[in-house]
Amino acid sequence: MRRVLGSVRARATLAASVVVAVALAAAGAAVLLSLWTNLSEQAGTEAERAAQKVATDIASGQSYGDLSLDSDDQPVQVVDGTGRLVAVTEDLERISGTGVDRVKPQAPGAVSGDDDDDGGSDDDPHEAGELGEASFSDGSATIDGDTADYRFAAVPVEADGKGTVTVHAGAPLTAEQEAVSTALTVMLIGFPLLLAVVALVTWLVTRRALRPVEDIRGEMAAITASEDLTRRVPVPDTHDEVARLARTTNETLAALEQSVERQRRFVADASHELRSPIASLRTQLEVGAAHPELLDVGGAVEDTVRLQRLAADLLLLARLDAGERPADARFDLVALVRTEAGQRTGDRVAVSVAADTADSLEVSGSRGQLARVLGNLLDNAQRHTRSSVSVSVRRVGEWVLLEVADDGEGVPAGERERVFERFVRLDEARARDDGGAGLGLAIARDVAVRHGGSLTVREAPAGGALFELRLPWPERPAGGR
After folding, report:
1. Burial, 446: exposed, middle or buried (Cβ in 10 Å; 0-12, 13-18, 19+)?
2. Is the pLDDT of residue 114 over 50?
3. How would you write 209-273 as a 3-class SS string?
4. In angstroms, rounded to a whole number, what is the distance separating the alpha carbons of residues 133 and 357?
5. For the range 251-257, what are the long-range contacts, defined as Cβ-Cβ under 8 Å and sequence gap of 24 or more?
6. What is the pLDDT, as a whole number, of residue 432?
7. What domains are there in the chain, each with its CATH number?
8. Which pTM was predicted?
């Protein structure tokens, strides 16, 4: 039961049913109230018309005994100004709601304090023969054994010789009650049927609408079970949110597949790159253990340094892949370039540094990571240059531009993006076997991107490779230079 109610389809059906039920109940109540009000007003109009007819006869001077009050379904009472019932419908047995419960006419003087048969008054505000405004009330009456509810109208009239006389006349509410009862019966039968139809339609519509979602869920479960990231979820032939969800899911699967494939290649390439120096170091140590005089200490140290650099590169790449954000520190990029270039005393080609301004060019980020980028670019330039390596730093618009150029063979146009992939070394570089693992440029670009910049390569003026590192120019704080 909990599982059924926990489904989106069941919750949608229940919510739609509740909303429709509340709306139907409110609408039904409003309809019944409006129907009863209108029909009651019609009964009141009918009662007023009957009362005005009798009041008109009284105003014209007709005596109480000559009034036409006989009606099978309209009780009439005529009350004078002293409250004495002077005329009433024949066969009236009981009445309530008019303020006068008596059903038999009273003789003159029957009311205490009434010394005048007509009950007239000299200071009555009505003129003789004038009908006053009707007032209404609800009650019941029994005529000839039949009891029913009535809408009563009370019409005052000023008659010559009689004073102020009030005529009470009622119109039956039986038809109105039957109409309301019929409408209520129809609602009690029709509303549940309509609610059932709404629930059924909602259930079927949501089932149809959520079928693609279930297909997506089933395919994702199959992908999880099989670990086959080449599979894709079905995309419905619609333009709604479900179709966009399916397309986004497929894009996520494609990105995940690429990421997993990249990780697999990374592990395979890392294993390959680690195998060579480890095997070489082991061979040298085994030979040294058997023949100490043949131990190549320099080669062992070189292989150890190579392993150390490769492990440091792999660790940095792992941190970058994990989303490590660079520090938000500001430092002078020109000073960093000059410091790093001055420490490279073992390079075969001297590095020249040029800056087009005497002021500092500040950037924001990790000084250590950007120093690593510069070192990788200079190492790459040293491996390929013939006679010169130059570094320049300048500001270009909203960017700080660092360029490293050499006069080597350069990078072919078709390989200028590929050189930034991990463990990629062009044939010439691989043939040189200078110890590079193909991670330096990949690390440099990743660091540049995470600093909000970019790293590209193009042909240098001297014919070699020109690597351009662009970093955003930080906004200076208020009061800064």
Report:
1. buried
2. no
3. HHHHHHHHHHHHHHHHHHCCCCCCCCCCCCCCHHHHHHHHHHHHHHHHHHHHHHHHHHHHHHHHH
4. 101
5. 253/223, 253/229, 256/229, 257/229, 257/230
6. 40
7. 1-226 (no CATH), 241-317 (1.10.287), 327-472 (3.30.565.10)
8. 0.51
